From TrEMBL:
Protein name (database record): ADF-H domain-containing protein
Lineage: Eukaryota, Viridiplantae, Streptophyta, Embryophyta, Tracheophyta
Organism for this UniProt entry: Lupinus angustifolius (Narrow-leaved blue lupine)
Keyword entries, A-Z: Actin-binding
GO cellular component entries: actin cytoskeleton
Gene Ontology MF term list: actin binding
Transport in keyword set: no
Residue intervals passing through the bilayer: none
Amino acid sequence: MAVHDDCKLRFLELKTKRAYRFIVFKIEEKQKQVIVETLGEPAQNYDDFTASLPADECRYAVYDFEFLTEGNVPKSRIFFIAWSPDTSRVRSKMIYASSKDRFKRELDGIQIELQATDPTEMGLDVFKSRAN
């Protein structure tokens, strides 16, 4: 599975310039490559992010999670989410699962990985507990 250059470029912009809150990536099966599907503006929040994931299709996503430490120090962690809902096609799940590690390696700077099959597996509480 090829990775479109735009994926790496947009991720770099998220990581270095905080240009986006999140990025949703989609595998274009006909072209056999991963492309950028959605870019979340910095002002958008977690609810906008979850709303951008389709309920019955797999996606990869990157989310820039900002939080305060116990000493009230603002920090952020970049999460990689492998979104694979139970209702998606088996073939799609297999393609996303088999391509995930290679795609993730292309995005240098991912700090935490989450696998999610339903929204509760990537709730804000999950982000908070994994970020510390």
